[in-house]
Give the backbone structure.
Amino acid sequence: MFLFNCRLLMSCMTDVTKSTYLSSNKNNGIVKSSQYFTNVKYQNGAVHNGHLKPWKKNLYSNEGYPDNYTDKSFLEELRKNLHVRKLTLLEAILGAGLITQRLCIVVIFALSFYALNCNLISPLLLLISSTSFSFIVYLFLYENSKAIPLWLMKSACAFVVSGYILSPVLKTLTETISTDTIYATTTIMMCVHLVFFDYGVSAVIVSTSLSLNAALFGSICLCSRLQTAFHVFVFITIAVQCFAVSPILLSPIKSSITILLSFVTVTFVLCMRVSSLMSGLFILTVLFINLMCPYYFVKWHSFKDNIYGPWDEAIVQDIKIKDFHVD
C-alpha cells in the first residue's frame, strides 16, 4: 500500500514537472507534436518546418537570434579600398601643376602692383598688354566653338565702365590704414584665395565665391597705395583678369608639362627683373609643390587602408515607381 502511494505520488510529480517545463519553454522554441514534445530550441534562429531558419542581414527576419549574435558570414563582406584610385607620379605632378598655375598668376599680379607702384612701366602699356593677352587666349580657346560665350565679353565691358567710374573712390577707400596692415591683409587674402580655389577636386574646403572675393578684397586694399585714379583702374582691371576671367579661360585647358613649364618660365623671368631673392624663393616653392609633394603623396598613398562592410550606414538608392491606376 505504501509502495502504491509512493508510485502515485511520483507519477503526479512527473506530470506536474512536464507541464511546468512545457509552459516555461513555450516561448523558447520548444516544438509540440500531438501528445509528445521535443526539446528543439532556437540555437541559431527560428525553426521552420523542422529546419533552422538561416540568418539574414535583416532586422525583422531574424526572430529568435540574440541581440549580440554575429554570423560567420559577417566578415565575408569586408572590402578594402573600394573607391581608391591609384595615381602615378606623373599624374600627381600634373595635378600639383594646377596649384602652381594659380600661384604663378598670383605672383604675376603682385609684380604688376610692384611695377605700377614703382613706375617701372606705363599704366596704359600694361593695360594694353594684359587685355591683348586675355583676348588672344579667348580667341584661341573658342575659335572652334559654334557659340562663342559673348556674356563674358559683355561682363568685361560692363566692368570697364564701372571700374573707370569708381576708380577715384577706390583710391581713397583705405588711405587711412597703415601700409604694413594693407600688405599683411593682402597676403592673407591671397593665401585664402589659393586655399579655397577650385582646382577641379570635389572637396568640402572648395569655395569659388570665397576664393574670388578674398582676391578682389586684397586687390582693393592695395588700390590706395597707387598714385592716380588711372593707376587704380588699370590695377583693378588686371585683378579681374587674373582672378575672375582666368579661371574661365583656363578651364578648357587640361594640365600638361608644356603649360606648366610656360607658366613657371614666364613668372621666373619676371621675378628675376625685380629680385634674385624672390626668384630663388619662387623656384624653391615650385620644386616643393611639384616634386616633393607628389613624390610623398604617391609613396604614402600605398599605405591607405579603407575598410567597407556590413557595419556601414545603408545607402538608399533611387527607386523608380511605375505608374499604376486605381480602379
The beta strands are 31-33, 36-38, 47-48, 51-52, 79-80, 307-308. The chain has a mean pLDDT of 76. The chain is about 60% helix and 5% strand.
